[in-house]
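If you are new to this repository, start here. Below is one unmodified record pulled from the training split, so you can see the exact layout before writing a loader.
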Amino acid sequence: MDLTRARWRKSSRSQSNGQCVEVADNLPDVVGMRDSKNPAGLVLTFSPDQWSAFLEGVKAGEFDLG
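And here is the target side for that same chain:
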């Protein structure tokens, strides 16, 4: 998959300790996610529908720990 045109961004809530991911959602058919500490490493990819479902789950607290 060609992600050379991806524009990666971090959350405005990122901490300076590097504990965050970057997301590229500017491509038409894919959303990429990578570890900000290792930008040359593994990239997880999602369809826009999968990404939307994930964000809805986050907002609904489905992944909260206790």
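Two things worth knowing about this chain: The helical segments are 48-59. The chain is about 20% helix and 25% strand.
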